[in-house]
Design brief:
By secondary structure, this protein is an alpha/beta fold. The chain is about 30% helix and about 20% strand. The protein folds into two domains: about 350 residues, Alkaline Phosphatase, subunit A (3-Layer(aba) Sandwich), CATH 3.40.720; about 90 residues, 2-Layer Sandwich (Arylsulfatase, C-terminal domain), CATH 3.30.1120. The chain has a seven-stranded mixed beta sheet with strand order 3-4-1-5-8-2-9, sandwiched between helices.
Length: about 450
């Protein structure tokens, strides 16, 4: 099967998971009459005005944030978009077991009409890189997705509660947006990443060769991507963000026009982060901060938190239980995230000690391996192992002293105690870092 067909098949599978028809056996659901608009955006790093970016124009997402709660430290369970989406929709971490009812199906069981629009995986040909066509929004897939979502809102309004998944492709590759959005970003103002070198002391397999970007015929197949080409790639990524932001704005306006904004919870999330030249990398698929940190914004009528921001460590696995809690939909057994609804009342309250992600990786000379990584408020600890082998390599980065992850602290005598302590926390796992409000954590304390 070709790469393109694999991507198409993956997109169809994820769309099926996110959508589906209403389950016939509906159960009584106590609680508020609250719809859910579930907006996922592929490869969107938190490069948004509401996250402090001075470069990117995102007025509509910023408006959503002004009425909701913005999670400033939210992380994907894996920096692969497909694995991250599966984990988020199932409420189970990538290395966890199966068996949990997918999020939309859980809502369907309790009376919600569920539907899904948009393909979360871009399907344009790899040779068609960074066009800036002079076309209307609806001539591109994400514009058509927004239009279809609005038609779904009109159809569902007043019939019964709905859970509507809207999946946008941009700013994932290829970086295509109408010319009008490129015109907002003059070429001379684009700045490249300020940490383009690999971290000193990092294992070489922690990096990658920036595929699938190099599959495009106007990108060099090897060597650094820098200079004018890097700036143009970043410009195209920013234009793609502003394009998808406009589609989000259409959804928000439709909610207001249809008088649905007062009884609809809106959650907007990116399925992973994205390197734009940090450490010489482009894309996701690493255990570094740029690939794992993702935007997460939630606005729910009746909840405090309008315009608030929280530095609490959260994970995309937390979305499932949080939406259940807000909507009074019972949570199925086996969820591995924690509802962060208490943060609406107090965004600064004591929360998780750490969040956890993992990434499969072929380790040269060793074989199939995995990098398990843990982010605390200050540090990231990553441990690489290979099943059936004694192989082990580790990384530690201190974000208080080294925000750009320029040096790995492992192997230094003065950091041995720190490394051992973080390694112990990673081995204990996510179950021991739950927030105080999670009864599973209380039972262990």
């Amino acid at each position: 099967m070709s790469r393109l067909n694999r991507r198409q098949a993956l997109g169809a599978g994820l769309a099926a998971l996110a959508g589906g028809s209403v389950v016939s056996a509906k159960k009584k659901r106590p609680g508020p009459e609250m719809n859910v608009l579930f907006v996922s955006i592929a490869d969107l790093r938190p490069e948004l005005g509401c996250y402090g970016s001075a470069e990117v124009l995102s007025p509509h997402i910023d408006r959503l944030a002004s009425g909701g709660l913005t999670m400033l430290r939210a992380y994907a369970q894996q920096s692969s978009g497909a694995a991250s989406r599966r984990s988020t929709l199932s409420g189970v971490r990538p290395e966890g077991g199966p068996g949990v009812t997918p999020l939309p199906q859980q809502f369907a069981r309790y009376g919600y009409q569920t539907s899904s629009v948009g393909d979360p995986v871009a399907t344009a040909a790899f040779g068609d890189s960074r066009q800036a066509p002079d076309v209307d929004d609806d001539e591109l897939p994400d514009g058509r997705t927004a239009a279809e979502a609005i038609e779904n809102m009109k159809r569902l309004r007043g019939e019964q509660l709905f859970f509507l998944s809207v999946n946008f492709q941009r700013p994932s590759l290829p970086f295509i947006a109408p010319k009008s959005y490129f015109d907002l970003y003059p070429k001379g103002l684009i700045k490249p990443a300020d940490n383009p070198e690999p971290p000193k002391g990092a294992p070489h397999f922690a990096l990658h060769d920036s595929q699938p970007l190099r599959a495009f015929d106007d990108v060099s197949s090897s060597g650094p991507i820098e200079g004018e080409q890097a700036r143009e790639l970043i410009r195209a990524y920013y234009a793609s963000i502003t394009f998808v932001d406009a589609q989000v704005g259409r959804l928000l306006k439709a909610l207001e026009d249809l008088d649905l904004h007062q009884n609809t919870t809106v959650v907007l999330w990116g399925d992973r982060g994205y390197h734009l030249g940090e450490h010489g990398l482009w894309g996701g698929d690493s255990n570094f901060e740029a690939a794992l940190r993702a935007p997460l914004i939630i606005r729910s009528p009746g909840q405090r938190g309008g315009g608030r921001k929280s530095f609490a460590l959260t994970e995309l696995a937390d979305i499932y239980p949080t939406l259940c809690d807000l909507s009074k939909v019972p949570m199925p057994d086996g969820l591995e995230g924690s509802a962060f609804t208490p943060l609406f009342e107090d965004p600064d309250r004591l929360w998780k000690r750490a969040v956890f992600s993992s990434l499969p990786r072929e380790i040269p000379g060793i074989g199939p391996g995995v990098g398990r990584t843990m982010r605390t408020t200050r540090f990231r600890y990553t441990e690489w192992t290979s099943p059936g082998s004694a192989f082990r390599a580790a990384e530690v980065y201190d974000y208080r002293e080294d925000r750009g992850e320029t040096r790995n602290l492992v192997g230094r005598p003065e950091t041995a105690s720190l490394v051992n302590g973080l390694a112990g926390m990673l081995q204990e796992g996510w179950q021991t870092s739950l927030p105080p409000t999670d009864p599973r954590g209380s039972a262990k304390s």
